[in-house]
Amino acid sequence: MADFHQNGLVTTLHNLSHRPIEDLERELVSFSQQRAMSLVLPSLYSELSGPALGNIVQELTKVPYLEEIVIGLDRADEAEYRHALEYFGKLPQHHRILWNDGPRLRAIDQQLQDLELAPMEMGKGRNVWYCLGYVLGSGRSKSVALHDCDIVTYQRELLARLIYPVAHPTFSYAFCKGYYARVATNTMGGRVSRLCVTPLLRTLTKVCGYSEFIDYLDSFRYPLAGEFSMRVDVIDDLLISSDWGLEIGVLAEMKRNYATNRLCQVDIADVYDHKHQQLSADDASAGLSKMSTDIAKALFRKLATKGEVFSTEKFRTIKATYYRVALDFIESYHNDAVINGLEYDRHLEEQAVELFAQNLMAAGEQFLENPMEKPFMPSWNRVRSAVPDILEQLHAAVEADHREFGGNVG
């Protein structure tokens, strides 16, 4: 059972009573009469044969309150798209697959590229961006949730708790972030969040002084969680990062656009496990190494927009301070693991901290070399101002693919 602590910045909705899923779903069905709900699933084709997605789809077949499920499919040829249509065809809800590698959606992407409005980098951010555009174009829902397709411990309660705060007709939340303990297979997960993000936020406060923005980010129990929900009208002005800074970027955007009393976080799972990224100490362009660099750059950019002045000397100070703060956290995590009977390898944890410390300096140098880098994709409001019928084009292309390649009617 969780505690009931509130940090005072962002409301935390705990799992205090383990309420039966049937009760939650009964309420959500009622809410759906006033605030229809969608789910976005960004997926690689390879995940269709992975250990998680089959169970996720099976769990979703039992969900009674969703108006629409939108699946973003990356890295799929025509035969694989046809297979995906069959694979997801068991879903009883209205659902559509964005075949991002198909000729129709590539034509739309090329049209936006010609206007310098298309996402420049392949990946989850681009997939999510197009899926959210489709949600706007379909007009079926007023609230939308998003979660990954590699959650091996998935239960449909996760979705119910995630979307409940933005679907409740008397709640005022525009955005909700999911959180959970990354504890599975008797070990602690979430290394980038535990060993990079949290120590870095505390470090930035020490080195740069108090920042309301840093305090805000530090109020989230799992800032890198890939699960969040929002009112659909939030999408219009949302800037989404194309790199591993996506989750931090979304939190920054919500702080920019909304008062914190419109934001919340919710406990969505007792046990959570998904695909683990490799540390990739020898390859700065992959795995947790790239993730830590992208996240650090996102934080440095945001602080710079608030007037913080960075230099090589300041980044050296940040690196040294971070290293000390992170080592102190390792002591705390070790003791937490011991009292809970979890396995904990301090050597591997310290190796990760050493890599992240190096990457903070690299991120700082990259920021100084290119401080005007624009990692965000444009908002859909901006795209619509340039191409007024772009959402209609996107919706029509997805429908045409669905009809041509034999998707279920509905």
Automatic annotation (TrEMBL):
It comes from Candidatus Litorirhabdus singularis. The lineage of its organism: Bacteria, Pseudomonadati, Pseudomonadota, Gammaproteobacteria, Cellvibrionales. InterPro entries: Nucleotide-diphossugar_trans (IPR029044). It comes from the Bacteria. Keywords: Transferase. GO terms for molecular function: transferase activity. The keyword Transferase applies. This is Glycosyl transferase.
